[in-house]
What we know:
The complex is a heterodimer. By secondary structure, chain A is mostly helical.
Amino acid sequence: MSPNRHLSVDCRLPQSRGYRVILSVEGEIDPSSGQRPTIRPIGRTTVADLRADFVMAAYDEHQRKLTSFAYALTHDPDVADDLVQETFLRLVKEHAAGRVPDNVSAWLFRVCANLVTSRGRRSVVARRYVERAPRPDDEVAADVEMLRHEMGEALVAALAILTIEARTALVMAANGFSGREIAASIGRSEPATRTLMFRARERLRSFLVAEGMHA
Amino acid sequence: MNHDHDALRLAVASLDFELTPQEQARMQAGLLECEECARAAASHNEMQRLLGRLPVRDASPDVRQRVLRYALVPPRDRQLPVLLAAAALLALMVGVAAAAGAFRERTPFDARVTGPSSSAPALGDVESPEPTATADPGSPAPGQGPPGAGFGGTPLTPDTLAQVVSGRLRIRSEPRVAADSIKYEPLLDVGDHLLILDGPVVADDYEWYQVTAWRPGNLYASFPVGWVSRGDHDGTPWISARADGCPTVATTMDIVAALHPEERVACFGDRPLRLRAFVQGSAATARCVPDPAVACVDGPAWLTGLGGWQSRVDTQVDVPSIGGPSLTLDPDGPVAASALPESGMVDLEGAFDHPAAAGCHPGATGPGAQPLAEPVARLACRMRFVVTKVTADDNYPVAGTPGITVSPNLRVRSEPGLTSERFELLADGTRVWVVEGPVVAADYEWFKVLVPSVDSGGGTPRVGWVSASDHGAERWLSRRTIDCPAPGSIRVADLARLVGSDKGDGGLACFGRSAIRIEGDLGLVCNDRDRPSWDWEPAWLSGNATRKLTIRDGTAVISARPRENLEVPVVCGDDGVGRFAIDAHFDDEAAGECEAAVDRSSLGHDIGIAAWHWCRATLVVDQVTRIP
């Protein structure tokens, strides 16, 4: 261990409830010699501050990828915002419970994917009698119009033909997750995920070809 | 399009999974042998690259703020075991002390700790409200400082939105910790929403607010109206103001419908709103009867909705929603009830929070019901949208009426939305019958239509879904206006114009099932199958009925079906025999039983709709009377 390495240690003394003491550790633990490093307190911070530091660092690092992921799955910017918020709120809870994920990025995607899946199950598909103001960022070309969207938006619309599970798998793959990670995330075996993804890719390819978006 | 060879499966799998050496070898050999597999594999590779072009988005800045705020508030669940242990220890100490006679004369402090209602506003029954010697350094001493000083500054004001930021928050009947302040259940949880009704009241060193609460995403959760504390003595907030509760974009009905009724009052107050909405269900409402578990609201009946009149906005959004606001009209206001259509799209002007809501008070209460609080009774009236102006959209399609396309190349699809099977493109001016709708999918409003001019096979008209407009802007499908003759002076020529060659729905649109009378020369055609190849029931009403009356007046002629078992004064092959007064109607009751007697798998399930519609559009003769 390098000298002056700072450790964050829970202090369980009653008078310090809700706080953590920042300790400075100098020296190395050598069991053979029985030497111990010098430890001295150098500061104090609240648990909430530490949690906020951790969560906000994760937020700033991953929110864009996660928001893009959620948007690709839902095609709704507001819903994507809600999903990202809920995902990070769960990270707060995990941290508060003393369970910090080993791979924060994978954990966030997995939670977000689960939220999308559960939301998809309970949501009502059709909305009736709703007057919608035109929204420039989510218009989908109808057949009476020319396709007028950027390819990315058209892809998001095309993904809607897939089941939420298949969509999640393909978008995770597009975000660099391996098949094994995807299988773990959607709760299927690897062979089952292979089959699911093959069918999803074939279906999406056929659709894109039929829509003239892909050769 | 799909090609299902082992080599292709392996090639696609290799995009996401690591193949075994054996699989690699099989894939490569297979791709060399199967050109189509190789092409498809290359196409999948290209699609994988394409998926890398999915849009990149950032979450809104509000999301970051909310996450930060949540991260900074200590979740209280984690403290529970410690607090339970502390409570047990405290109980033990109290028990020992009591045994020693130390509490023979109880102090107010003791009463609050050991009495039946001694719990703190939060954490249910486990945390003492009293300051302790181990209070966090820097937190204000209890009872010191101005109200709210320990809770984040400016007090919350009535009619503002708040949210619970600490779990297990108790609602009490009175703003104090005392035996007469009933501890309500269930407890509030983090994220529950509140409307501040009254407060603050500072008591027991807590800052209390009267609130009504609801749980977003769970419309079945209900909470009693009561008082909660804004936070703990040490400044830990239990509730906080909601800065993000109100929409910041243009107000449309779906946005209003997605809000909880309390949020509508808090966000819009009595501000005039213009909303476009599909309204229906205009009806008088029943007076309130204080049955067990029912508490009534007294006040102007038109505003309480109890014994007055109301209409409602029909909306169904894809998030849990309590539904659109109920509409009401001030009887002394500028709009008559008749101005609102039974069912149709309208532009509404009006507002929530009508001043007359001040006259709403708690009414009679059933024996099992909780009496309403004064602000709650008033709130029930404030939440109703009082309409001050109505402009009907006369061209908006309505289910069960004729429609017409008003845009070229309008696509018919098998289901609402953009991903279902695509049928024909309809030309501008195509006549349709609107079967049902609207249904919103892919952000478009869709109507199911029957298109008589398009044969979908076997003589069956196309039935499918079309979008009504470009998000409410450019109109693609419109209501079809029909020039209907006055019921008392209908001529055969009028019906011929409306019905045409027995396929038109103009007669149905104009007269519904009202009785009509015409005069003409009568004839009878027998065993003429002019309908499609399939059979349908009931036979007497169908296009392939064995008896069809012809009614002629000069050059105009129409076809009709004699009512089942009706004796007619003509025989098969007669044409233009005598002059008759003919009583008839469209939309016969038996149309509801019309069914295609065929295997639907070959002609599609919508064949039933076609049969039903044709039967409804058929003129049925009830009686013929010879004119001398």
